[in-house]
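**Fold tokens**
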Amino acid sequence: MKKKLFSMMGCALLATVAPCTAGGMNTAFAAETVFVESEFAPLKRVVLTQTEVVLGKNILKYVDANAKVPEVTDEYMKAWALERENLKEVLEKYGVEVQRPRLLTDYEKMLGNVENGYTEAAGITNFFARDPFITIGNHIIECSLFSLYRRLEVLPIRPILQKEAEKSGCYYVSIPQADISEGNDSTVGPFLEGGDVLVYKKTVFVGNSGRATNHAGVVWLRNYLKHFGYNVVEVKMDNDILHLDCILSFPRDGLMIVCEEAMPEGLPTELKSWDKITVSKDEAQALATNGLPIDDHTYITDIVFKDTVGKELEKRGIKVEYIDYKLSRFAGGAFRCSTQPLLRK
């Protein structure tokens, strides 16, 4: 299922930052610059990923045996980057302000190949913006990712987050760094990844398959957000699923695209009355649910889904923008994975 890095890649962070507002500014102002109300509220400002991958010499130790790792040539990377540029063009057509992370430094690239270091020479990536941080309401939360080759992925994004927190007065916090007292590949966590987090007003759905976000990460997020009136709902998933957005999407209020067969405990109670566009597990593997709503009547997905998900959305009165995104999907993430909103309100 969506395995990041050519069907495999996933950042343990740094330290916990105490919940507080930045710069002493009024949080009402933050709601105008940093605020995510729901998955389908009008998208105004967004972080769109870069397209950088450095495969470490030990990468094959840390990916699935069946993972397909392409030859990362300049031509391949240019074609992949063009997909992101095409997405940027569509977003800007709808008036969305797009911000991009900085590029990896030479030092960061070197760290991706250091054995007995933070990445265990598994590599370093800068190719998906969804997972290293989350925006919920006027809270920016840096995450803790499971996979060694993504542990530094938040660093190219952090200058954006620091700037946003300083100018907006939003809350800017980080989950505690992952426990590596028994080794870098310890599964203790806590782990929390943006692809597992879907926002619906004051309810936040968080996926847990044992491959990315774990229960400790869910508990941390629940304990933090309860002070602000949020309800965090844990969603159990099959262990061959990486993230919740591989099997669930909210194009508008009361409508979801879903792969129920990947939910061993069934749909959360909060969603059982919703209209649903059902996809199979094979379609979910191809990232049929990983589209991106621009608002509640406009949705971006891959052209390959035109006669399936796209057709069902159009029947329900939703305009669909189609982009060929096959290289990104092959790398394990589509439109939602490539972006993290700053303002949806």
Remarks:
- The chain is about 20% helix and 25% strand.
- Confidence is low (pLDDT under 50) at residues 6-31.
- The CA atoms of residues 255 and 275 lie 5 Å apart.
